[in-house]
Design the sequence.
């Protein structure tokens, strides 16, 4: 699901120091998410962020710079699976639902 929401994420760096940064949540699924940061986040670190009903925890699988920032892919740990019931980002676009609506007769 494409989305947009600002979150504060944290991780522990190689020196054992906790790092914190604001990120833009770009997309989310039950198994992972993509966040945009202003600075790179190391591969393999455990990234955390939360909302009132759920904490998300996962491993950074990729970090790629694209024109406007670093896009960081996170694979959630099993207890951090996302659902709309637990957390609905500020802006959420369900592409599958949009396609189904577009295919209906009379559109």
Sequence:
């Amino acid at each position: 699901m494409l989305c947009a929401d600002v979150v504060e994420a944290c991780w522990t760096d190689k020196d054992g120091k906790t790092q914190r940064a604001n990120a833009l949540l770009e997309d989310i699924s039950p198994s992972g998410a993509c966040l945009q940061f202003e600075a790179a986040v190391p591969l393999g670190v455990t990234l955390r962020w939360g909302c009132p009903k759920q904490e998300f925890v996962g491993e950074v699988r990729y970090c790629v710079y694209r024109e406007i920032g670093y896009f960081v892919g996170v694979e959630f740990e099993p207890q951090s699976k996302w659902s709309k019931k637990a957390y609905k980002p500020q802006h959420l676009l369900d592409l599958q639902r949009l396609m189904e609506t577009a295919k209906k007769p009379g559109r």
Residues 2-103 form a domain with the Pnp Oxidase; Chain A fold (CATH 2.30.110). The chain has one helix and seven strands. The mean pLDDT is 83. Strands lie at 2-12, 18-29, 32-37, 46-51, 54-66, 69-76, 91-93.
